[in-house]
Amino acid sequence: MRSLLFVPADSEKKLARGLDSGADALILDLEDSVAPDAKPAARAGALAFLRAHAPRAGRPRLIVRVNALETGLTDADLDAVVAGAPDAVMLPKAEGGPSVLHLDAKLTAREAVHGLADGAIAIVPIATETAAALFVGGSYRGASRRLTGLTWGAEDLSVELGSETNRDAAGRFTGPYRLARNLCLAAAAAARVQAIDTVYVDFRNADGLRAEAEEARRDGFTAKMAIHPAQVAVINEVFTPSPERIAEANRVVAAFAAHPGAGVVAIDGVMFDQPHLAKARQVLARAKAAGMA
Ligand code: COA
Ligand code: MG
User: What structural domains does the chain harbor?
Assistant: First the structure.
């Protein structure tokens, strides 16, 4: 999964557009992009969309972003959408392993009601939207087998922190938000799940998006969320390993295969050892997932 496009679930038009966007996943949003009075319509829209598309082969992954646990709306969200068998639920304002366990229990009960396999629905928390969340990233590790990815958010966090802005004049995240991003990356790696970069809200600025996505990839994120269909192609491109990287990874794997039992090999005067081999395998796995190898 490279690109995850947010679609307000009360917008039939955007739901339809999302399908044609090329995104690897659609995040059907019941939370911040939906006005309070429109929550029932969004739940109904998400369920209708899931019913129509979840059974289809070749579809994007379908994720529902529910309202946060402390809103009191999460149960009604789940009551509406679990019947549509989404692939995952995105949990905003999550605060570590206990939040995941809380949602896990809610999902288990509803999977039973709807005849879905226990654990069928994955969980992707947004791990940095409250100040308290920044202190508990390490608790995601081992919390639930439903946990398949972690992402982060800067908008709600900036309200909590009281920041005037979360980006500097050049459009780069300021210190507190880089901390949140980096904690998410570390929490995801510790939990052995995919690290997914946050949204880039300046959606007409493709160069800015590309730069931010490339930085994310450099550091270890393997996907990025989008808010507009025009962002999807850039994100897919950045997070698909290039032919050069794939060739390089194949060379490393082949060099080790040619020297069974070797801990270290040399290729063209450069040393490669076990971390390089592990990294090469990661690149090939991502290439395979993107249909490139
Ligand atoms: N998913 C699907 N379709 C989308 C879309 C999205 N996220 N964002 C825009 N579109 C559609 C528009 O409906 C429009 O369709 P049309 O040509 O059939 O009219 C087309 O893409 C072009 O949109 P554009 O006019 O460039 O943007 P806009 O002003 O209509 O919408 C936003 C701008 C920001 C309101 C819109 O992109 C959006 O709703 N994004 C998602 C917001 C969200 O979910 N936020 C929560 C997570 S942070
Ligand atoms: Mg939010």
Answer: 3-238 (3.20.20.60), 243-289 (no CATH)
Distance CA 40, CA 119 (A): 26
42 touches ligand 1 (CB under 6 Å): no
Residues 111-164: tens digit of each pLDDT: 999 999 999 999 999 999 999 999 999 999 999 999 999 999 999 999 999 999
Q: Supply the residue whose CA is at minimum distance from atom 25 of ligand 1.
A: 228
For atom 36 of ligand 1, which residue has the closest CA?
228
Whether the model clears a pTM of 0.90, i.e. scores above it, the answer is yes
Nearest CA to ligand 1 atom 3: 14
The closest-lying atom of ligand 1 relative to the alpha carbon of residue 31 is 46
The first and second tokens of residue 253, run together, are: 């794997």
Helices 74-81 + 97-113 axis angle, to 10: 40
Continuous H helices in the chain: 12-19, 39-53, 74-81, 97-113, 155-161, 175-191, 206-219, 232-239, 243-258, 274-289
* DSSP at 67: P
Output the CA angle 265-215-223, nearest 5 degrees. 90
Pair 143, 189: CB distance under 8 Å: no
